[in-house]
Amino acid sequence: MRPKIELKKPMEIEKKSFSIIESRLQHITLPEAEYNILKRVIHTTADFDYVKNLTFSEDAVSVALKALENGADIVTDTNMAYAGIHKSALQILGGTVHCFMADTDVEKAAKERGVTRAMISMEKACTLQKELIFAIGNAPTALIRLTELIQEQKIQPKLIIGVPVGFVNVIEAKNMILESDTPYIVAKGNKGGSNVAAAICNALLYQLTTRS
Fold first, then answer.
1. Whose CA is closest to 98, among 70, 69, 127?
2. Catalytic residue at 98?
3. CA dist., res. 77 & res. 100, Å (int)
4. Scanning 23, 85, 157, 172, which has its CA 20 to 30 A from the CA of 163?
């Protein structure tokens, strides 16, 4: 006998999903802004491990929200994250999303220097004359180069979202961000991904553009 499936409209599905998530997070005590980010990451991944893994530096969310209100841009390391970030919400605030991974000059420089395009992308971001939030969901080398650029005083991000997924240099790269003085939201361990990076960005944006 087939189970009875109740078809719902998309908004009803999302509302029901968040209701289920909230019922399982009743024991969690977080500031509202951080709680909203955690909920959206779990909604995106269906993975409650982020309750333990998702880490916020002190005042990271408030600093990021202020930067977005001031029109900060977002730089990401994948076209998937770029596609997933709510660009119209960011545009309302005066910001733009950038992903330089497919740029011809980035590809050429990476090949000539024998490094990853993610590393060159971080260097190219230094040319942007705006406050910046970095959303890294795939490439640990982006976090490594970003840390170096900060140490070289070539860039000063308002927030680093460090959630690359994988097994090679991922934990080490995340630890570099965790040990830095730059505001961060980091998913400890091997989990993460471009979808998580986009979800965190959207959770921040929705708090400013929907006030829900």
1. 127
2. no
3. 7
4. 23
Select which of 27, 43, 86, 98 is catalytic.
43
Contact status, residue 38 vs residue 30, Cβ threshold 8 Å: yes
Q: Which of 138, 132, 150 is nearest to 96 (CA)?
A: 132
What does the alpha-carbon distance between residue 143 and residue 136 come to, in Å, rounded to a whole number?
7
CA 136 to CA 159: how far, in whole Å? Answer: 11
Length of the chain: 212
Mean pLDDT calculated for residue range 39-63: 97
* pTM (global) more than 0.90: yes
The residue behind tokens 């090949």 is 111
pLDDT digits (tens, 9 = 90+) for 147-163: 999 999 999 999 999 99
CA dihedral for 193, 161, 17, 88, sign (positive or negative): negative
